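fyi for ur records
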Amino acid sequence: MTVTATDLSPEQVALCRAKGVDAHVRDMYDLGFAAGCFDSAWAMNCIHHIPDADLPGVLGGLATVVGAGSPVYIGVWGGVDEEGMPEEDFYLPPRFFSFRSDATLQSLLEGSFLIESFDTFRPGEDPDDTLHMQSAFLRAR
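which gave:
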């Protein structure tokens, strides 16, 4: 199996390359790969940095690089419909997040993918946690 990794951060890409992984600095808005060049894709905690207005185009681009029928996994924090920069974010510069309710995320995914399964879980035991992990196994349209 051959793995190709992408990240917006040159530092993260350098760490991957140091471990022997074929890694590229890429932006999800334009992955820069040929249509259908990958057999599958895995995106973990990536799309929660994409505004809702831009997400259909980003998902369409992801579906294009894997090609119709290819499996895709997306895992992301969500559970509420909320966008912006959280006041409690300790990173500088502050990061943008777009959290989505389960219904909103599924609706957005359906534009580019067939949803094979959609599950949620809370890694911790705190029932007051607002967010939960959303896990989607998909097939590109």
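Strands lie at 4-7, 22-25, 41-44, 71-78, 82-84, 97-99, 113-121, 132-140. thats all i got for now
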